[in-house]
Amino acid sequence: MSYLQTGKTTVRSVTFAMLLWLVCRAVSGADTARIISIEIGDYRFQPDTIELRAGEPVRLELTNTDGITPHNFTLKDAAATLDLDIDVAAGKTQVVELIVPVPGTYTFYCDKKLLFMKSHRDHGMEGTLVVIPAAVQ
Ligand SMILES: [Cu+2]
To answer: pTM for this one?
Structure first.
């Protein structure tokens, strides 16, 4: 009987510790990821320049404001380990968590293109991501 009692207590402690961990994780995640909302439509990104610090966790909320045209958020740079290619259907929002470790200036763009037509990027659909060095501790 006392053995069972001990077992129950242990299970409760572990469950409580897991709950506490989950709550802490949710709270810290919500606190640290800055949200950057970008409207995508009419062959442009709005805003078309975004700035963040190296190592800063951000959450990009990409909303396609067009009625029928699908768009995309492409951000690639091998040296900075950036490899994003996110399709956003018309009228929809996609969310992506992003941490850029390397300061620099990067170009993002839409890679959509209809056969025999100019690509959305050729229509001017691109923007600039400026990553400034992390704050000195
Ligand atoms: Cu596009």
So the answer is: 0.76
Shared domain for 97 and 77, answered yes or no, is: yes
Domain hosting residue 11, numbered range: 1-32
CA–centroid distance, residue 88 to ligand 1 (Å): 9
Between the CA of 81 and the centroid of ligand 1 the distance, in Å, is 23
What would the pLDDT profile of 42-62 be if each residue is shown by its tens digit? 999 999 999 999 999 999 999
Note the residue count of the chain.
137
Q: Are residues 65 and 8 in the same domain?
A: no
Token duo for residue 115? 């056969």
> Hey, is 21 helix, strand or coil?
helix
44 domain residue, yes or no: yes
C-alpha distances (whole Å) from 44 to each of 27, 127, 128, 131 are 34, 8, 12, 21
